[in-house]
What we know:
Layout (H helix, E strand, L loop, with lengths): L4 H4 L5 E5 L5 E5 L5 E2 L3 H7 L9
Antiparallel strand pairs: 1-2, 2-3
Amino acid sequence: MSKPLACWLGLHAWHPIVDEDKLRLIQCLRCGKKEQPNGNVALRLGFDNYMGNH
């Protein structure tokens, strides 16, 4: 399966997940890319508490 055009352009559909090692990550729902979110991404997605900023 090829990577969707939106993902090639950097417009991923991020969704918060927790992996097997209990790391908090974001994963693209379209292409499956996983990353550790930085503060800017977390705020744009509306889950600032997700980063542990209590």
